[in-house]
Amino acid sequence: MASTQKEIVLSGIRSTGNLHLGNYYGALRKFAALQDDYDCNFFIADLHALTTAPDPAALHANVKNVLAEYLAAGIDPEKATIFIQSDIPEISEMYLLLNMHVGIGELMRTASFKDKARKALGLTAPDDDDDGDFAREVCGNETNKRVNAGLLTYPTLMAVDILIQKATKVPVGKDQLQHLELTRRFARRFNSFYGVDFFPEPTDFDFGGAPVKVPGLDGSGKMGKSEGNCLYLTDDPKVLRKKVMRATTDEGPKAPDSPMSEPVANLFTLLELTSTPEVVKHFRDAYADCSIRYGDLKKQLAEDILKVTTPIRERALDIMADDAYLRRVVAQGAEKARARAADTLREVRHIMGIRGI
Ligand code: ADP
Ligand code: TRP
Known about the structure:
Elements: H1 2-5, E1 8-14, H2 21-34, E2 39-45, H3 46-49, H4 56-72, E3 81-84, H5 89-99, H6 104-108, H7 111-121, H8 131-139, H9 149-152, H10 154-164, E4 169-170, H11 177-194, E5 203-204, H12 237-245, H13 262-274, H14 277-288, H15 294-320, H16 323-352
Parallel strand pairs: 1-2, 2-3, 4-5
The site of tryptophan has 13 residues, from strand 1 and helix 10.
């Protein structure tokens, strides 16, 4: 069958909340564009969500939110395999097996681990971030706060998500590239340790051009859940307009062709993503000749963002109300994803010597 010939693409988003405009432009829209040409597998990383937010009610609700928002943003269950990570028990078993080939040192040195571990312990990163100091900070911490081992082994679990499906292309944001590098390293190590050519080495998906980074409206950096500056795909129009109108700006250009401050440049980045080239040009010209009124820019931006998010929001609300459909989608996805995972796990067990009597 043609679909089995296609390259295997896999990516996931943790179920830690509703999806925002950064997730849409950085991930969902790209996922949807790949469905016709690749064997696409998109999943909800609920086990990964447990590493930072073990709140049963929130986790349960967020799996459904992310699923509905995947579908509303155009991921099509007839084209892509959509599944929930925890529906594939083979992932958990292979996570245990692969951990036997992963060093605690390399996990401790992972940037995302250092970041999240420090957050969990309430520590701030020193300017000269030294791995030795970090190990002492984490291991010698006498408070009652703790860094859970699941957070440390996050990259193992992510590698298993990818390797168990034998995926070769993984569309992820820049912050995930180190995890992908570790995945390649674990795959090579497994292959060479057992003298097999079993796991392919996955690479990032190169979409060409610069990667999209959707900024926040609070002046700097990126839009993100932990930054608390998100425009959610499911924000009510009133809420979304209010958030945009409150966006940080500056006093306005004082001389023709002035350089732009970061908050204003961020508004233009969002405008470029959501508006027509004519609208962007209109406001760029107005900025250049100092006639710009930021209030007008924000009003236009809010309406153009709503043109993108409203259809998604409406579809998401419809889909959320249809539990039978959602259950069908994930059951069908789990069946496909499990079949491949079970094949891989069977071979991994055999290669490692777990072969029965
Ligand atoms: P968050 O930072 O809000 O917790 P995640 O880390 O769960 O979001 O990201 C899920 C996906 O969305 C990843 O592929 C990530 O690269 C992408 N993404 C998140 N925020 C942005 C952003 N501001 N711009 C572009 N892509 C983003
Ligand atoms: N770690 C990813 C993130 O936080 C989510 C994820 C888990 C993932 N497993 C994956 C992404 C496998 C791609 C492939 O965004």
